[in-house]
Amino acid sequence: MNRVVSVWLWSVLFMGCASIAMAQEPAPGQQPEPIVIGLDADMSSGSAVAGEAIRRGALMAMAEINEQGGLLGGRALQLVVKDHHGIPVRSTENLLELAKEKNLVAVLGGLHSPAIMQNLPLIHEQQLLLLDPWAAATPVIDNGYKPNYVFRISLRDEYVGGFLVEQALRQGDTKLGLLLERTGWGRSNEKGMSEALAKHQKKPAGIQWFNWGDTDMTAQLIALEEAGADAIMMVANAPEGAAIVQNLAKRPQERRLPVFAHWGITGGDFIALTGEALKQVRLQVVQTYSFLDANDAKAKAVITRYQAMFGTKDARDIVAPVGTAHAYDLVHVLALAIEKAGTIERAKVRDALESIESYDGLVRRYQPPFTPEWHEGLDPSDYRLAMFDHDGVIVPVPR
Amino acid sequence: MFTGLKGKFLAFFLVLDLSTLGVIVLTVSRDAQRSLRDEVKQRVALRITEMSKAIQDELQVKWMSMRDLAANSFLRNSVIDTLGRNEYLVPFMQKLTLPGAGGDTAIVSLLDFKGRVIAQNVALPKVAFHDTRWLPLVLNTGQPHAELFARDDTTKIVLAFPIYYLKYAEGVLVAEFDLSSFAQGYLRDKEFQAALVDRSWRPLLSGVPEAVATKLQRDLEVQGQPPVFLEEAGILYAALPFHALAGTEEFAWTLVLATRLQNILAPAHELSRRTVQIGIITAFVLACIVLWRMTAFVRPIQRLEETMRTIMEHKDLSKRVPVSSHDELGALAGTFNQMLADLQKIQQELQGREQTLQQSNEELVRQQRALQSLLEDLQRSKDQLQQQQQVLQEANVKLQQSNKELDDFTYTVSHDLKEPLRSIEAFSKFLVQDYQEQLQGEGKGFLERIRANAKRMGDLIEDLLELSRLSRRANQLTEVNVADMIEEVKQRLAYAIMEKRVELVVQGSLPTISCDRVRLTEVFANLVSNAVKYNDKPAPRIEIGYHATEQAHEFTVKDNGPGIPAEYFEKVFEMFQRLTKREDQEGTGIGLTIVKKIVELHGGRVWVESAVGQGAIFHFTIPKEIKRLGEILVAKQLISERDLTEALKEQQRRGGGAKGDDPATGRGA
């Protein structure tokens, strides 16, 4: 699988490069060096869908840029993909390898916050400009490094907690049970959600943890039921999230609690894993963007490009849309920064990222995308709830 | 020493005992060795199987434990949760041990995909795994791995299990422990030395000498059924190949047990030694007992022998053997004493008898002398007897001569008497015929009386002649029909019968008998004649009867005449005896004498029964088997002659004068 993906990836890259070469028409005998963007994500494991979505978003943006002559006088953008399976230490290895890339300007991260959090020292040591299109843990950005080399266009758990708590409360669920994976991401959400509840003078009805790879969370579900929860705040990726839904579907209907889910579940093959069980469970998931209700020209162009590049026919076919949208916007913001910095020197590009005035992106108009103090491209106003329809397509819940 | 009975017994016993001991020691020792060897082999086989199984189980339980740990989501999560795991992983790992023997000594490490240690159950030193051969193997193949390696001269075992998240091995759980940590305990055995070797027979725990290893290896290849046994240089080896961990070549081990044959056979040797010791002691003790018992046993025999010797030397039968026991020897002594007593008694009796004999002898001599004189007397008597005999003989001859002379006399007299009588008769007849008218009453009566007496005289003479003939002649015996005989008698007496109107009846049938026909006819004639003659009844009746007895024919002649008084029952058969006056009756008085003579000549008997006035019955018998008539006749002859003589004398004494016989009988000389 891994091998197939990379062959396919490389062929796409080759085509991309070829088109850049044709557009640039470099001086005879001098081939401008490409500008390399790394992607370090789970490309083949439980959240490979997220990795692929990010890659597709990045590729589309790079294709657009390369089509327009590239950057810095014709240097094409080139994507180098690394697969870390969601495992932080694999990410370490990947980042070390990417750091050796001569023309590496930045690295796109994946779904997994721990993979980034684990490597913050390395990232800053190597001045690896890390652009985060998905991992939502608050400490990814609030990492204490100055200068901070991590920029994000994605959710921030601090706000996700608040958002989901607000949504749940609004829908009448007042006792919220937390069901979290035992990782940095889980703990980041425990914190965010607890704080959000605290703002309402509430505490979680219960906090339950699970391990990666756990398949039976019935005990945790019962614990939350017994703690009096009337809704579950679920922080899980696709494999474990699917297991929870499976377990939940087997609970008696009157005890089958509604779920307000973090979006980790959308990073994997959640639909296939849950199957019919998903229809038995009332599950709402936080999203930032949907191609399905995007009417602007940019979105339509991206959808068109998406279908062209990845052989799909409909916007509904765009999997894990947030990953694609965020990555797309991040690459464009990076491009602006590179141009602004006039170099691919990562420290300068980093600085430039903090000084872009605005960018009209797919998800929103970033104005500015980042500041020296604020590396979050989105804010809670971008958050929205979505549900899986009968085809498993994530459809936004009308605001 | 072994010459006496005691010695022989002792020697016999010792030979028996010691040879039995020898046989027991040999067979028991050999059998014991064999069965010990077999048993030890069985025990070794059992032990080696147990040991190998224990080792297998130990390894297996650790393997399973590691497998389960590696599959635990807690550890999996720990591989991923790099930032938070220290809080929970470290305490967990610190407490982590493997089950089974030596499990607490195992170093268990959780590794990341690069082989870096995430956590260990020991604080220090941390072992590096990144350069191990098996790490890429486990991560790439995703298969658990077990391997052996040597460090610090100890064999160590590594069990490595991949920790998966979905399809990737993201980490490895490794346990490292000494083989000895769990195996040593099982291999420690006070009886056996155990060695564990790998499949190339390299030592894992202790080693096996190379030569032995080579042979065991070869035997294992040849033999199908492990364990194989090998005896080499006084040591018994057993080898059992086994897979300490299934499916892993590296864990195809061989367990070798070794024990000194000496140790195995020690109990057998000990048994033999003990048997010999106890056997010898027992033999000695038993020999003493045998000696003691034999002394007691032999003593009565010795006493017996001494007593016998004393008796022989002193000829003293009064000696006795003391009887001290009730066994066979006591019985022997008792019997011997009894024998002595008997002998003594016999001796005394003999002495007594000797005296008696002496006396008898003397008596005998005396008697002999008496006998001698008696013999002489006898001789004298004999001589006298002979003389008397001679006298007798002479007298006999004289007697016979006189008898003959008497017979002749009788005959001659009768003949001679007949002539004058016939003259008297003839002249008296002439007188009657010629002078009848001349003679007057009385003269005529005298003449008649002369005639009658003359006739009577003739009858008498005829009967005497007949009687005399009876004595002289013997007729032949012939088969005679008695009925015919009676018929003849009837005819002969027809006149008399008719005259007296006698009814003569034969009762029943009459037999045919063997007899002197003429004489027996005479008997019937005499008896019937008498019955007719003496009957005084107006209707005389005579019955002739017969019945057979066992040995004789018995005939009866019964009449209804005057009968005979009882005192005449015998006398009637004597000569000239009559019941009536001679004058009243005719007859000679010799008839019944002739009857008796004839019947007796036949060996029969004649008798009469009667009562006066009621008739008489004459019985006579003729034996069915008549002895030789001649003998009887001869025997009777003497008597008859004597009787005749007597009768004649009697007749003469009475003075003659008989009236004469019945002329009707027709008897004549």
Radius of gyration of chain B: 77 Å
Oligomer: heterodimer
What's the gyration radius of chain A in Å? 21 Å
Average pLDDT of chain B, to the nearest integer?
82
Overall outline of chain A? globular
Query: What composes the largest sheet of chain A?
Result: 7 strands, mixed
Series of secondary-structure elements of chain A, N-terminal to C-terminal: HEHEHEHHEHEHEHEHEHEHHEHHHEEEE
Q: How much helix, percentage-wise, in residues of chain A?
A: 40-55%
Structural class determined from secondary elements of chain B: alpha+beta
Ends distance of chain B: 123 Å
Q: What's the helix count of chain A? A: 15
Order of strands across the main sheet of chain A: 7-6-8-9-10-13-14
Number of strands of chain A: 14
Identify the strand order in the major beta sheet of chain B. Answer: 2-1-5-4-3
- Sheet-strand content of chain B, in percent, reads 15-25%
> Uncertain spans of chain A, ≥5 residues at pLDDT below 50?
1-26
Task: Write up this protein.
By secondary structure, chain A is α/β, with parallel strands linked by helices. In chain A, 44% of the residues lie in helices and 15% in strands. Chain A has helices at residues 2-24, 48-67, 88-99, 113-118, 120-125, 138-141, 157-170, 184-199, 218-226, 238-249, 270-274, 277-280, 297-310, 321-341, 346-353; strands at residues 35-41, 77-83, 104-108, 130-132, 150-152, 176-181, 206-210, 231-235, 259-261, 283-287, 359-360, 365-366, 384-388, 394-396. In chain A, the strands form three sheets. Chain A has a seven-stranded mixed beta sheet with strand order 7-6-8-9-10-13-14, with helices on both faces. In chain A, helix 7 crosses helix 8 (184-199). Chain A is globular. In chain B, a hairpin with a 2-residue loop joins strand 3 and strand 4 (154-165). In chain B, helix 8 runs antiparallel to helix 9 (441-472) and helix 9 packs antiparallel against helix 14 (629-654). The chains are: A alpha/beta (399), B alpha+beta (669).
